[in-house]
Amino acid sequence: MEAANLTGPDLSEAVWKKSSLSGEIGGNCVEVAGSFPEAVTVRDSKNPAGPTLVFTSGEWRIFLNAVKSGWFD
């Protein structure tokens, strides 16, 4: 089994975009930074200093395709 890279991308250069479905009043707010060549990072916009999820570009593409196909409806 191969060891995982636990360092991830340098998020100080991240360009975060808030989901268009996240309201301006709070609630479920998600931000995504796709500004890295091999990774997509996701965080809670209400807690920008908190933890982030890091996905490979391929994993993110699979997730988006599942959302678009209604898999999570």
Unreliable stretches (pLDDT < 50, length at least 5) are none
Q: Name the shape in a single word.
A: flat
Tell me the fraction of residues in β-strands, as a range. Answer: 15-25%
Counted by DSSP, the helix tally is 1
List how many beta strands DSSP finds: 4
Report the oligomer.
single chain
- Into which percent range does the helicity of residues fall? 10-25%
Distance from N terminus to C terminus (CA atoms, Å) equals 34 Å
Mean pLDDT: 82
Can you list the strand order of the major beta sheet? 1-2-3-4
- Radius of gyration, CA atoms, in whole angstroms: 13 Å
Query: How is the biggest beta sheet arranged?
Result: 4 strands, antiparallel
Summing up helix and strand content along with how strands pair, one would put the structural category as: alpha+beta
The ordered H/E elements are: EEEEH
